[in-house]
Amino acid sequence: MVTAVSQTRLDALIEALRRLPGVGVKSAQRMAFHLLQHDREGAEQLAEALGGALRAVHHCERCHTFTEAAICDICSDESRDARQLCVIESPADQAALERTGSYHGFYYVLMGRISPLDGIGISELGGLSMVQRALDGKVEEVILATSFTAEGEATAHVLAEGLKAQGVRVTRLARGVPAGSELEYVDLSTIAHAMVDRR
Amino acid sequence: MVTAVSQTRLDALIEALRRLPGVGVKSAQRMAFHLLQHDREGAEQLAEALGGALRAVHHCERCHTFTEAAICDICSDESRDARQLCVIESPADQAALERTGSYHGFYYVLMGRISPLDGIGISELGGLSMVQRALDGKVEEVILATSFTAEGEATAHVLAEGLKAQGVRVTRLARGVPAGSELEYVDLSTIAHAMVDRR
Predict the structure, then answer these.
(1) A65, exposed or middle or buried, with CB in 10 Å at 0-12, 13-18, 19+?
(2) How, if at all, do strands B58-59 and B66-67 pair?
(3) A129, A155, B152, B180: least CB-packed within 10 angstroms?
(4) Are the beta carbons of B6 and A57 separated by less than 8 Å?
(5) Contact B50 A54 (CB under 8 A)
(6) What is the ipTM of this complex?
(7) pTM of the entire structure?
(8) Contacts of A57 in chain B (CB under 8 A)
(9) What pLDDT score does A7 carry?
């Protein structure tokens, strides 16, 4: 029947959009209707961008971030300080660190964090290849810059254990009061940490 | 430079995802990383679904809803009551009405609503072809089932004016207290409407 097919194509699009993180059935419907009704050009662009990224984007052999080359931009930059390796969760975190201009070493991007509930342990994270990366003989300090959430802290803890056993110096980003904040609006756990780590 | 290209493919994907309604730069980033890292199959599926829908899905010649045939399922159903035409904003509204089982006439899907701020007037909505559809000689009653928001009400008002001038009977969905609600939690405007329309 012709219409059964029709239902299926639109439904297939809605179903595919639902696989995006944070998109439920209502949003997926709204997105599908919007694309088909108001932004067919955007839909084409998205289909092409998906295809292009799938074909070309893979992981950097050294730092595991997304790249189209074998070795990414930052890892091939010989002016960077090979003695420091900063471990982060995502390319977005890397971009944030780069924007600060406060760090000139190399990175290792975990592409996630330990999450026992989702079955993601240190080996799923490529934590072992991270440790190997840290032991290239040049790295003197590994800076753990995973999130300050329960999962990020657990990830940092596990990595720190593994690295310390290998005799590498391991540091963690400082915890404290964010710049520009008024103390009365800062959560108590942050203030407590800032008090302990005062200098 | 190789890496400049790499940046561009990932950025192109993030940019394309941002065109989805309700998706900002952070969500688009999260979606792109998720697809590339954890759900490449989902990304392929989405690219294919977009392509398939773009190629095959267009508007029904009679009711303007999405279909792959010239005339959609409902419009080709001869068992339906040709004397009633229900005007709604979207295929999702149509699906909701169909699920109630309380309506057996035909539909006209506006695919939007009047929104002066976005430059959408009655002609952009295909309101004129809607009026034509209503004047096929068989339609006796047009039921306006646009949303009960300011924009939906404006749309209903404009369509009602046009249709009444042609001598077609025009009705609107009843406004009132939703089933299952306790009066104290219903907003005052709804209660006021329910009081006026009491029966």
Answers:
(1) buried
(2) antiparallel
(3) B180
(4) yes
(5) no
(6) 0.79
(7) 0.77
(8) 6, 9-10, 36
(9) 52
